[in-house]
Amino acid sequence: MKIRIIDDNPRRYGELATQLDQLGLNKSDYKIVDCVNTAEDLLVSNYYDLIILDILIPYYNYGEADKQVSIDFFNYLHSDECNHKPEKFIGITSDKEI
Question: Which pLDDT score, from 0 to 100, does residue 95 have?
Answer without folding.
Answer: 80
